[in-house]
Amino acid sequence: MFSRPPKLAAWLFGREEHSLLSRWLFLRALGLIYFSAFFSLVFQINGLIGPQGILPAGSYLERVATSLPGALRFWYAPSVLWLSTDTPLLLGLCWAGMLAALLVVANVLPRAMLAVCFVCFLSFVSAAQEFAGYQSDGMLLEAGFLALFFAPAGVLPGWGAASLPSRASCLLLLWEWFRIYFESGIVKLRSGDPTWRNLSALDEYYQNGPLPTWIGWYLEQLPHAFHIGTAALTLLMELGLVFLAFLPRPCRIACFLLVTVWQAGVILTANYCFLNYLVLALGFLLLDDQLLRRLMPAFAPQGLGERRDGLESSSMAEAGSPWRGRLRPVACCFGSSMPRCCRWCRCLRRAHLCLRPLRSRLNPFGLQTATACSRS
User: Fold this and answer.
1) pTM of this prediction exceeds 0.85
2) Phi and psi (nearest 5°) for 24?
3) How far is it, in rounded angstroms, from Cα 49 to Cα 52?
4) What is residue 133's DSSP assignment?
5) What does the domain layout of the chain look like in residue ranges?
6) Which residues pair with 15 in a beta bridge?
7) Partners of 166 in the β-ladder
8) Residue % of the chain over a pLDDT of 70
């Protein structure tokens, strides 16, 4: 029944009516994350890639232009800094990004302002060389790019009921959330570090993590059994519990509660810049209007919860069971013939190659081996 690609495409690009509140929360959080990124760059960008900086962007772009003449240079390094790498444009890039981010938080022209944020941040990352080699930058670009299709259209869209998101954009954002956790767990085991295999990796984590906090010092004093237990729970969550995100609604809510508590612990004990806040924001997409309507009745608009219940009932009747709707993409992919799956894989690979210049983490994610061994 679900073996034909057209039906899969129709389902993926259909409208998701159950995530207006979670989308609203996620986009406000994404705007704040963008603002924090650009705010920190205002004080650093000139010293990093300015004309007299450590790695001047002008010299780098000149080398790119020499190696890749013609329009290919813009594909390899998509950046507005091709116009100029002087200090005024560098600072203007940051201020434009901050202004656009604040407008995203204020829910004014969210889709257009997210595009401005994405272009500004991509322009920096494309010319920052070694200063933009962190996975957090790529994850923000990926989330920002997908948010362009997830955000509502319009000047003042409100809750966005007139511009519903597609299921594809929601699923791709959840897929990013899943990869961050799952591949972080995989790299811990594949790094070859014995401390994750004998569960002693967290014995000294709280003192050698990035910018450890005073809370981390107190956790460092806890018994060895605590560190063994938290290391085991970390692997269990990253390699097992995150699969709950693709199961029915109660499992997704439980998954959100578990990973949010864990993520809050990471934020309180170390500083990974905006990485953990981005993962935390993506986790909002595990929730739906029905739950959020109950959690904040005075804040959420009247009618969203009731409308969602009606839509859910009809969709459940059509799907036959809560599992069938959730597993429909899997049925579409694995119910088709093998040659057709191969064609889909080739199409996905071409899409990956086309999107590579956007510097997003559509490639496999994982903390560097050294970081995973010593800090995670």
Assistant:
1) no
2) -60, -45
3) 8
4) -
5) 19-164, 166-287+337-376
6) 166
7) 15
8) 78
